[in-house]
Amino acid sequence: MVENLGQFGMFKVTTDKGIEFMTTEIVSNMGVFLEFRRLFASSVYTNNAVIGIEYVSKTVVICKTSTTTYTIKAIYDRKEPVNRGRRKFSQIEDLMDLEYVDDNYDMYFPELDLLILPIHPVLLGKLTITEQAQIKSIINVYLYGKGQAMQMCRTVCFQVRLHDDRNRIYAGIFDLERGCSITSRQIFEEYMSVDMPDDILAKHRAFQNHAKEFMKNLGKFENKA
Predict the structure, then answer these.
(1) What gap in Å lies between CA 77 and CA 20, rounded to an integer?
(2) Is the pTM of this model over 0.85?
(3) pLDDT for 197-210, tens place per residue?
(4) How many Cβ atoms sit within 10 Å of the Cβ of residue 135?
């Protein structure tokens, strides 16, 4: 039904009722409805069967039901995710892997002395339906993402305090639509290292060291500018 949109990775959808939302994938549902999938969040569906589709351009499509007109605009091309094989995501630390971080998207807030490292969906890799559901569950339950206001295209981010003798690290929801962190939950403080399993502690140390190295390199870059 919307096969030509498969090459894109993010879309903005507006309706003639004044509703706007973003979607990361558009698929046919039962052959008559459209499902607007949002990464690690609840889908949106057309409120009735689709009765007409008009391709305005390569990146703009108008979809009509008997009650609503949807204008779909592609934002950017889809990137093929890395193939990392099967995994199990049962706790927040399962997402704490520097291979999933693209430093081009890191954000530093000097007033908070906080570096935010988003988990990049492409670097996270190809995910089965089960793996996607596991990550969605972590976001909904552990990171307070179940509410309707939190249902947007999203991923996980980690937040590292840089000059902090308590070595605090937080995890949060990263809003892919607006490019910002919207929740924060503390997951590490130095006293916790005493009872923490070695493999989990190693992940926290790796993120702390990476954050310090990132800021050191950022400082060198800014001094040259």
Answers:
(1) 20
(2) yes
(3) 999 999 999 999 99
(4) 22
